[in-house]
Amino acid sequence: MKWNSKLYDSKHDFVSEYGKGLLEFIPNDKNQKILDLGCGTGTLTNEIASYCQYVLGVDGSKEMIEQAKITYPELEFEVGNALKMSYESQWDIVFSNAVFHWIFDHNLLLANIKSSLRGSGQLICEFGGHGNIGTIETGFKNVLNSMGYDYISKFNFSTTEKFEALLEKNGFTIDELFIYERPTILKDGEKGLSNWAKQFFASDLANFNKAEQEKILLELEKQVKNMLWDGSNWVADYKRLRAIAHI
Length: 247
Known about the structure:
Strand order of the largest sheet: 3-2-1-4-5-9-6
Helix content: 25-40%
Radius of gyration: 18 Å
Distance between the termini: 32 Å
Strand content: 15-25%
Number of domains: 1
Oligomer: single chain
CATH superfamily: Vaccinia Virus protein VP39
Structural class: alpha/beta
């Protein structure tokens, strides 16, 4: 998926804003080294820098990393694939916000994270949990199906049971693990849902011409309006899975 870093920062900055709640789980130790896995445009990487001796931001999107380097030139960022990491006992903490639901192989992901941690290293993460954007995704699927297009979800919204089993399989001791509802107001009033869909359903929408895309977005709004429109804003039905674990 190709990310629009400017649209992400201007319309979807709630992703990093909500992620700031994870920062409280980072120990206050200036000697520690932290990997921000799936750092996006670096907003949280910049916050993490005050908690440690060294932080590296890694993301699979070249566009996101380019923007992060422009915004925070004093920090280090790299383009990288979480499923191909080769770090060995290098990090005290692997931090990740709103990323793991884009990765289908959570077993390999956690195995790589385990190998990358040293001592009693810690994983601090949060991502879309089971049922996340269920209303939006169902509405989108219905609209595309009506146009003869077979929608296949790009997301991996895990249950706590599945993620717990994989954490334990890969040698983690769980400190916290739960799913919680986090209704999220989308920016720009009536345009909020359309802006959101243009970013997060971009690869599906790319299969249609501009007129068809506009029709899809209008139909999506009709499908979910009774459930997600509060009269002034679109409120996305977010559910997040938070996991804090150590080796």
